[in-house]
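notes to self, project folder thing:

trying the whole complex as one job this time. last attempt i did each chain seperately and stitching them together was a nightmare. two parts in total, labels are on each line so i dont mix them up again. if this works i'll redo the older ones the same way
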Amino acid sequence: MPSEMSSVPSEMNEALLRSLTPSVLAILVRRGADFAAAEDAVQEALVEAVRLWPDDRSPSARPGSGESRPGSGRGDPLRDPKGWLVTVAWRKFLDATRADAARRRREALVDEEPAPGPAPGVDDTLQLYFLCAHPSLTPSSAVALTLRAVGGLTTRQIAQAYLVPEATMAQRISRAKRTVSGVRFDKPGDVATVLRVLYLVFNEGYSGDVDLAAEAIRLTRQLAAAIDHPEVAGLLALMLLHHARRAARTAPDGSLVPLAEQDRSRWDTQSIAEGVRILQTALARDRLGEFQAQAAIAALHADAPTAEETDWVQIAEWYDELTLLTDNPVVRLNRAVAVGEADGPRAGLTALAALDDSLPRHTAVAAYLHERDGDLATAARLYAEAAHKAPDLAERDHLTRQAARLNAHRRR
Amino acid sequence: MAKYLLLKHYRGAPAAVNDVPMDQWTPEEISAHMQYMQDFADRLEKTGEFVDGQALAPEGTWVRYDGEGRPPVTDGPFAETKDLIAGWMVIDVDSQERAVELAGELSAAPGAGGKPIHEWLEVRPFLTAPPTITE
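result (full assembly):
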């Protein structure tokens, strides 16, 4: 295990370092380092960079301003940050392998210190995404490995983000690396598995000092630059559209603010505009997928100046599309809400009646539709019941407040 | 320093003085309660006495081993089970007195009518590692 970063890098340095991580790692793997050792070496090089790089970097030193020049010493991190990282990471890798038992084979590798080779392409980064989301990994392992090897986060940061001890996360990552150690690096993978991992990271939100939602957006953006795929664009659009509402989603006291009650002036219009633009380009290619459909629904919400002006008819139609694409029970549940808004709460309750009532949030949706239908006593009872079954504290508090609000109203 | 578990129950503790279910409070009373709990935890973090706090879902499953090669037996949830833990806070404090003092403060969290709930909390000391010097 490499030691973790002890000093705090300047924000600009950290962003730069993390954007360079996947391509530096890919170069090491291309040169013949095995993935697990290369990944350790890159982490150590990152630690070194944090220690040695000047705090403020001149604008000429942005990524892409130079190519890797191994053999030219460590080089100047200001002029060629990637070259510097590659050189340092390769030395770390060689140091580690030299220290290993199988000396002879490794020394042969040292002797044939590799030529610079072609400039690393986006393909390498893409391969790294595939590897870290490999189907042989469990979702939690794929998430952790992606954040470290592609995202350039330290084990400590990832552990903090997922609220587990650092030793636990270190173990999860090293097991994941062992699992994929035999996977060939040049075989293309399935984009859908990568998207599922990024979606999981985004949904985790944020806790500790790492903003996982922002990190998921960064990684999805980087993926979208590496591969032209409408569903990658769809997921990026979906994330941007949801992220745009984040500031409005919680009250100052930390409680949840439902969509209909959010202060829409607090939505990030720039993020919405970008999401909509990306989505429109993707939809124009006529290869619909579930992330594009979900993004279309998010875009329709974002498009409404007030909750009352929401185009629920179109949203319900998108849920129909989504049902055809995934047939996920959660989608059907959301569809019942949309139908309730488009065609009235009775229609929503009819749609809901067709679904298994053990579905998560089924009771909460029933409570909402009964309230819309004017049956406040039933709604209050169901909100309290839904709070009892809520999967997280924020939702439990929210549902309890809904029950309390209706009960207080009925007492008046 | 010694660690204590402050245990809150859904069921099984003696009845609180101000024993009104939360969905019968006003939304403002709920907010005041949440704020009190948050402030309490923040204050303990600042004094260096907070270790952990978690809430548990009200329903779970009983599981036991059913012999070699068989899947475990599951059962429940049992509505009649007397004791049902709702959540806990772990504190690391200098004395039992301090643990009791803090539990008392937590039990004073406001409930219906803005009045303290006077909820019963269980204070349980952790069994610690043996000290280095024993003689």
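what i see at first glance: The domain at 2-125 of chain B is CATH 3.30.70.1060 (Alpha-Beta Plaits).
need to look closer tmrw
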